[in-house]
Amino acid sequence: MEAKPKQDGRGGRGGRKSFLPRGRQLDEAALAEVVALLGDGPRRPDLLIEYLHVLQDHFGCLHARHLRALAEDMRLSQAEVYEVASFYDHFDIVKEDEIPPPPLTIRVCDSLSCALAGAEKLIDELKAGVDPGRVRVVHAPCMGGCDVAPAARIGNREIDHATVEGLTELAKGAKSNADLPPSIPDYVDLEQYRAEGGYGLFRRIGEGAIAFASMLEMLEKAGLRGLGGAGFPAHMKWKIVSGFAGPRLMTINGDEGEPGTFKDRYYLERDPHRMFEGALIAAHFVEAERIYIYMRDEYPAVLEILRREIAALEAAELIEPGFIELRRGAGAYICGEESAMIESIEGKRGLPRHRPPYIAEVGLFGKPTLNHNVETLWWVRDIVEKGPDWFAARGREGHPGVRSWSVSGRVKEPGVKLAPAGVTVRELIDEHCGGMADGHAFAAYLPGGASGGILPASMDEIPLDFGGPLAELGAFVGSHAVVILSDKDSVKDATINLLKFFAHESCGQCTPCRGGTEKMVKLLSRDGPLDEGALRDLETVMRDASICGLGQAAPNPVNHLLTHFRGEV
User: Fold this and answer.
1) In this structure, are residues 228 and 358 in contact, taking their beta carbons and an 8 Å threshold?
2) Pair 60, 176: CB distance under 8 Å
């Protein structure tokens, strides 16, 4: 008679009983390493991404044994830890039989402005010239260096106008990413800001100098809007959030990942306390019990500045310790969407929620949450001290307010330009950017980054603002990122670049966006005439069925390519 196999402790087949749990087993040495690195900090689930950063920074990757140990230490399931770690681009998961990444990483932006400046050639030459066992070269989505393209980052140091020679020279002197910390620009620190009258307004408001109703009236009269992309009136946000029962929270969205956008970085690298004072004033009026700043990982210098100045605010007793929490993104454009950002702050994957367009009614940690963009808060002090009429009058008739325009591409003087709401692209080029770059003739422009569409140069007199004629063309101003294309550029190639970005950055939650962006790239990349019928069908499905604005807006450049640039179809 045939012998029956023995059962192990899990009911499986084997020669010896075992009572080990299923899955990856805990490595006690790895657990000791994780516990030592995290120290006495709280083990709350919302800190998961912060702790993943600690491991990634220390070890250069996320070893599977450390993920298992982190799950044990935080009392989370391995699945929870792995799904979050695998969602974000800046985390490198290494399983037991895999080789860790090289100790030094060079990231080169391949988004549109950098592509126009030769990013692909730079990447190819770097890969051919470095030791792949010591240095890895990777494509990176927009790094907020559109005005200094091509932008790169080696270790934690951001490089403007990157060259092969400059990057390889830096690589020679570095053993790991930690050897190249960020270069911190000169900026207005707390001491200087207070010497120039900073936080005086916040102090007076705390003493009751301005009533909430008066503050709302000033914001409304000034015409201040949310300047992260949606343009929702700021005073309405404050009023709506204050109408919910407390406790309330506040978030500041610094994840400006829209290709072509770099205005928030510009302000935070120069005068961060204007944003802080605006945030504290907003938090006072809506009675927020805590402020969370969500800052993209692509800005290491900004992150260091914010860490220093939050500590300075606490030391000066202007805020209670922990009142402002800095949360570091991990390479996910979708987290610029408000509800996805909230998910990420809670330590989860950045998956957008179905929610109202102006506020997550049940927001961060289930509490009513006021969310603002960096630039919106940056203007609050000026509006109160100089008066709402001062701010409103700086815009064109019917377009109140001054705006910060991130202008890049084929212009002589790219950068952040202060110009009126309602300005035209022709005025931005001629009056603010020194004209077109030598040898280039104006051909097309993106009025609002990758999502805002592409318009021909013949439409150069359209007022750039939320709604109005721009919206009637299926375009929008969004985060005020204007990218200029010339007669030397292909609008079709630019469209493919933008759709590749969307395909890479889709969170994958809904099929219309996940599959639609990938399919659009394939259809656009085929040789010969474009299949307009298939592209239009995809466009309809993506607009009607995508959960969030990424999938709904991704077809905008394709629509404009088919509508306004028939010569390239």
Assistant:
1) no
2) yes
For the chain, percent helix, then strand, then coil, each to nearest 5?
45, 15, 40
SS3 of residue 443 by DSSP: strand
C-alpha dist (Å) from residue 379 to 98, 222, 385, 412 = 49, 10, 10, 28
| Pairing state between β 104-109 and 152-154 | antiparallel
Give dist(CA 510, CA 352) in Å, integer: 10
Q: Could you write out the DSSP letters of every residue in 363-392? A: -GGGS-EEEEEHHHHHTHHHHHHH-HHHHH
Nearest to 431 by CA among 440, 418, 442, 443: 418
77: left (phi > 0), else alpha (psi -120 to 50), else beta?
A: beta
d(CA 323, CA 169): 42
Please tell me the distance from the alpha carbon of residue 174 to that of residue 20, in angstroms, as a whole number: 43
CB 370 within 8 A of CB 282: yes
Q: Are 27 and 45 in contact (CB under 8 A)?
A: no
DSSP state of 225: B
CA distance 426 to 351: 38
- Cα gap 420→394, rounded to integer Å: 6
Structure tokens, 244: 């919910």
- Whether residue 5 has pLDDT greater than 90: no
Name, in order, each residue with C-beta under 8 angstroms of 301's C-beta and a sequence gap of 6 or more: 158, 182, 183, 184, 185, 269
d(CA 424, CA 437): 18
The pLDDT tens digits for 380-418 are 999 999 999 999 999 999 999 999 999 999 999 999 999
User: For residues 569 and 556, what is the distance between their CA atoms, to the nearest angstrom?
Assistant: 15
State whether residue 93 is helix, strand or coil.
strand
**CA–CA dist 558, 564 (Å, integer):** 10
CA distance 256 to 336: 6
| DSSP code, position 270 | T
Q: Which residue from 359, 554, 556 is spatially nearest to 471, judged by alpha carbons?
A: 556
- The better pLDDT of the pair 497, 353 is held by 497
pTM score, whole prediction: 0.94
Question: What number is the average pLDDT over the span 154-174?
Answer: 97
Mean pLDDT, the chain, as a whole number? Answer: 94
The two tokens of residue 86 are: 């695998």
Over the stretch 188-220, which tens digit does the pLDDT of each residue have? 999 999 999 999 999 999 999 999 999 999 999
Report residue 1's pLDDT band, with 50, 70 and 90 as the boundaries: very low
Which is nearest to 254 in space by CA: 180, 186, 193, 345? 345
Q: Quick check: helix, strand or coil at residue 527?
A: coil
d(CA 319, CA 286): 16
